[in-house]
Write a structure and sequence with these properties.
This protein is mainly alpha-helical. The chain is 56% helix and 4% strand. It is built from 13 helices and 3 strands, in the order αααααααβββαααααα. The protein has a 3-stranded antiparallel β-sheet, with no helix packed on it. A hairpin with a 2-residue loop joins strand 1 and strand 2 (152-155).
Length: 275
């Protein structure tokens, strides 16, 4: 690892205090590129860097790696490691509307769960919890019993180490309590596998895939979509989701636009008559 890359590692992990996953992603991208170049990244011109990264056909993967390189070059320029301010242009990606489920679709799927045993109670409670809070699955799996206080959820292991408190629906709390009362192990964390260990991301994915046919993240999208559809302010939704930027939350404005379009189609006379 070059000296500049070591300095960047210290910067993102200590000075900026980014999450361990963010730091790992940065360093994985940059170290693999430095290995491919067989010399420090800072000594190579931007055209050479882009030519190597352009072999990635997935544009989202390419943009993540380009963002890592841009962050590194920006750091080097500010620390005067190099004179030139380099910024590689990201690849254009068509905007995709987030996939989401309606409340009725989730309700119908919950009816398929056999909640006579604690494992079924867990699956039922997990799906309700994800839809009721909009929590990321990584945040969900780190929850401990003390993180739920009355009708409030304290998310301590949030993305970017930004804690937040969100309300949680009473029906979800009741489902969690029912599951925990039947739970045969004495553990501090909430979500457990059948052996009593902490539930993994793969297992959580299998649960939502089994009953809903989607990943856990779709329930987060469904939560946000339901709020926007119900008239929630975009900035409130941003706070509830823990988004650092309002731009990230704006992907859900498609719901508002669709509601407006349907209202005009139903109510405006020009949609029914010809001149």
């Amino acid at each position: 690892m070059s000296n500049e890359l070591e300095a960047f590692f210290e910067y993102v992990s200590v000075t900026k205090a980014l999450s361990s996953k963010s730091v790992e992603a940065y360093m994985s991208d940059l170290q693999s590129l430095e290995t491919a170049l067989n010399k420090p990244i800072i000594t190579i011109d931007s055209a050479k860097v882009f030519s190597i990264l352009s072999t990635y056909k997935n544009k989202r993967t390419l943009n993540r790696k380009l963002s890592s390189v841009n962050a590194f070059f920006d750091f080097c320029h500010k620390r005067q490691f190099n004179d030139e301010k380099i910024k590689l242009r990201l690849s254009k990606i068509p905007k995709l509307l987030p996939k989401f489920l309606s409340f009725s679709e989730i309700q119908n799927s919950l009816k398929l769960i056999d909640a006579s045993a604690w494992i079924g109670m867990r699956d039922y409670a997990l799906i309700l919890f994800l839809y009721a809070t909009g929590a990321r699955i990584s945040e969900c799996l780190e929850l401990e019993r003390g993180d739920i206080d009355g009708e409030w959820l304290h998310i301590r292991h949030a993305k970017g180490e930004k804690e937040r408190i969100v309300p949680i629906a009473k029906v979800a709390i009741e489902a969690i309590n029912k599951y925990l009362n039947a739970y045969p192990y004495d553990k501090s964390f909430i979500w457990s596998n059948y052996k009593g260990g902490k539930l993994s991301r793969i297992s959580a994915y299998k649960i939502t895939q089994k009953y809903l046919g989607v990943s856990p993240h779709v329930l987060r999208h469904s939560y946000a979509t339901s709020l926007i559809s119900g008239g929630a302010d975009l900035r409130v939704v941003q706070e509830l989701l823990g988004h650092a930027s309002l731009l990230t939350t704006q992907i859900y404005t498609h719901v508002q636009k669709q509601d407006l379009k349907e209202t005009v189609e139903v109510c405006h006379p020009m949609t029914k008559e010809t001149l």
